[in-house]
Design a protein that fits this description.
The protein is α+β, with helices and mostly antiparallel strands. The protein contains 20 helices and ten strands. The strands form three sheets. A six-stranded mixed beta sheet has the order 3-2-5-4-7-8. Strands 1-6 form a two-stranded antiparallel sheet. β9 and β10 form a beta hairpin. α7 packs antiparallel against α8 and α13 crosses α15. It is extended.
């Protein structure tokens, strides 16, 4: 076999993304936090772009009115979306003229005080219901009130610092001895001293703090009940030795073992509802961050208005001084400045295209899911990316990038845009959304007799009477998706 070399001419087509196209795709796919980071980075690296701190040339955002079965442009506002659906055309050439202004509302960096003045409606401030004082400070204040030796106080402070977020002590005493001995080599500490100080902490407020298990925490809380219930000793024994009976919902065995009547067992279990399985939950020192919605949907009767959230729009513009310098023919560094000016123009256009596309996609989603916004989850329809892509004349991959990490706030709550894209389920005469069927299923289970909950087979039959023909296996899958336990586990003792 002979090996020889030869030159072959071959013609093929390949797609190469220009730098401007790559930037546009990256900006489109960014979540709000990622966009803030991109803008901050670009401001540091490019002198041609600056924040518009003087609020010049405010951008009049477009809005859309949606009525049942029709889509109308708001004639009273200058829309940034043209009727030719020209958003995010990556092959379109950008004119070289300097973009002088890009204005919108300055990003506040927080969304703690969102309120809507439209239609006279206001939203309450987000409240995390947390205490001003931390759990550690609260426990240390109580520790100081005890007459402890210096060594025991050091042990107590160390144990308090070792509690988990729920207020439990989950570390072995031997590990605490090793950690304390390493930090305080001149102090001799044994496990008995660790447990002695821990028992003091377990008497502190909040009740149940410092327990090593859920059962122990509940026992501590029962011991501190005032007035003392008649079933206190039995409840402590039940939690200490027979907690599995509670998990198994074995009401009859509890009756027989403690010689209780059914009513007495029910009263004891009702008392359990007053206990807190997470003693430290109200002292958690981290606050939940509210999601910044990109889209706002306001409802007045059956009319839905879709707008961008102006609070998240970047407020940027081209620096006029440097732009004029870049136009001069004889100046050192002119090529670099022109290069940065071009990059700045592409960056601003990418941001404009991002919000342009996002608003068009959100409007199409609201138009397709009007029944959901007016009637709730039970009216949700099956929707695919392809359906929205066809509605706005964009590629399906562009729609996927546009909805990734974006949120919409409406009368149904704050929801990710991906929420509205659900698989169609063959269900009776019409294809329904899995979200709608799960909502119906949740409603059926909520209304069932808690002492005789429906089995999956029975749930399947009830759904079939409502026009949703599903297999028992699918019903079980939807139930598990909703986080609802089986009928055996749902059966209540009280």
């Amino acid at each position: 076999m002979k090996i020889k070399s030869s030159i072959i001419q071959k013609q093929s087509q390949t797609m190469v993304l220009t730098q401007s196209m790559q930037t546009a795709l990256k900006i489109l796919q960014c979540s709000q936090l990622e966009l803030e980071h991109e803008v901050s980075t670009f401001l540091e690296e490019n002198i041609m772009i600056e924040q518009d701190v003087n609020h010049e040339g405010d951008l009049d955002l477009s809005s859309y009115e949606l009525e049942t079965g029709s889509l109308k442009n708001d004639q009273n506002s200058d829309s940034i979306i043209e009727n030719d659906n020209s958003s995010l055309d990556l092959d379109q050439e950008t004119p070289f003229e300097v973009i002088e202004d890009w204005s919108a509302h300055e990003d506040s960096g927080s969304f703690d005080h969102l309120s809507f003045k439209s239609n006279g409606d206001e939203m309450d401030d987000f409240d995390t219901n947390t205490y001003e004082i931390s759990l550690e400070e609260h426990l240390l204040n109580q520790l100081m009130l005890l007459k402890l030796s210096q060594k025991d106080f050091v042990i107590g402070a160390f144990l308090i610092d070792s509690l988990d977020d729920n207020g439990y002590f989950t570390q072995p005493a031997s590990r605490m001895v090793d950690a304390l001995s390493e930090q305080y080599p001149n102090i001799e500490i044994d496990e008995d001293e660790i447990m002695m100080v821990l028992r003091h902490i377990q008497q502190f407020d909040p009740p149940g703090i410092g327990a090593t298990s859920l059962e122990e925490s509940l026992i501590q809380q029962i011991k501190q009940l005032d007035p003392k219930p008649y079933w206190q000793e039995e409840a402590i024994d039940l939690l200490k030795y027979h907690s599995k009976w509670l998990l198994q919902h074995d009401l009859k065995r509890i009756e027989r073992n403690y010689h209780f009547l059914e009513e007495e067992v029910i009263e004891m279990l009702e008392g359990f509802k007053c206990l807190n399985p997470y003693p430290a939950i109200n002292y958690r020192n981290h606050k939940v961050e509210a999601v910044k919605p990109d889209i706002i949907v306001l409802q007045k009767g059956e009319t839905l208005t879709v707008t961008l959230n102006e609070d998240i729009l970047p407020k940027l513009r081209i620096n006029r001084k440097y732009a004029k310098l870049a136009q001069r023919a004889k100046i050192e560094g002119r090529d670099l400045m022109r290069s940065q000016l071009t990059e700045a123009r592409f960056f601003l256009k990418s941001i404009e295209d991002r919000f342009d596309t996002l608003l068009k996609v959100a409007t199409a989603i609201v138009d397709a899911q009007q029944a959901f916004f007016l009637n709730g989850k039970k009216a949700m329809k099956g929707l695919r990316l392809q359906d929205i892509a066809e509605a706005v004349s964009l590629n399906e991959s562009t729609i996927s990038r546009a909805v990734a990490g974006k949120y919409m706030i409406c009368s149904q709550g704050t929801l990710p845009l991906n929420f509205f894209f659900t698989n169609q389920v063959s269900s009776g005469e019409e294809d329904a959304s899995g979200v709608a069927i799960r909502a119906v299923l949740q409603e059926i289970i909520a209304a069932e007799d808690k002492k005789k909950p429906f089995s999956d087979q029975k749930l399947q039959e009830i759904l079939e009477t409502k026009g949703h023909e599903l297999s028992r296996r699918t019903v079980a899958k939807y139930r598990e998706t909703l986080g609802i336990p089986s009928s055996t586990q749902r059966k209540r003792l009280v």
